[in-house]
Write a structure and sequence with these properties.
It contains no helices and 11 strands. The protein is an all-beta fold. A hairpin with a 4-residue loop joins strand 7 and strand 8. The protein is globular, with a radius of gyration of 14 Å.
Length: about 120
C-alpha cells in the first residue's frame, strides 16, 4: 500500500496550490478520502473529507470556501485544490484513506507534503 503526496511548496499569500495523493495497493474506490494538516506545535487538523460512493464532502471551518477535495477513481488519486492561501495554512498536509463496507477498519496514510505560505 502506498499513498504519496505531492504538489506542496512555497507560495505567497493569496496564491494557490493543488496537492495530489497518488495511491496504489488497495481498492481505492472503496475508501473515504481525507486531507489532514499539522503545523508545528499544533494538533492534527481535519481539512477535508470525501466519501467513497456518494461523494459527500466535509470541510473544516478554516478552509471552507477556499479548498476543494476531489478524487479520480480511474487514476487512484486524491486531490486538494487550495486557493486564497493564508500564512495560517502553513503545515504538512497528509492524505489518508479509510475503508468502508467490506474494507472497514483499514486505514492508510501518506508521509505528507509541506505547504508554506509566506511573502
Amino acid at each position: 500500500v502506498q499513498l504519496v503526496e505531492s504538489g506542496g511548496g512555497l507560495v505567497q499569500p493569496g496564491g494557490s496550490l493543488r496537492l495530489s495523493c497518488a495511491t496504489s495497493g488497495f481498492a481505492f474506490r472503496w475508501f473515504d478520502l481525507y486531507w489532514y494538516r499539522q503545523a508545528p506545535g499544533k494538533e492534527r487538523e481535519l481539512v477535508a473529507r470525501l466519501t467513497a460512493f456518494d461523494d459527500t464532502t466535509f470541510y473544516g471551518d478554516s478552509v471552507k470556501g477556499r479548498f476543494t477535495i476531489s478524487r479520480d477513481n480511474g487514476e487512484n488519486t486524491a486531490y486538494l485544490e487550495m486557493k486564497y492561501l493564508k500564512p495560517e495554512d502553513t503545515a504538512v498536509y497528509l492524505c489518508s484513506a479509510q475503508g468502508v463496507r467490506y474494507y472497514r477498519g483499514r486505514d492508510y496514510w501518506g508521509q505528507g507534503t509541506q505547504v508554506t505560505v509566506s511573502s
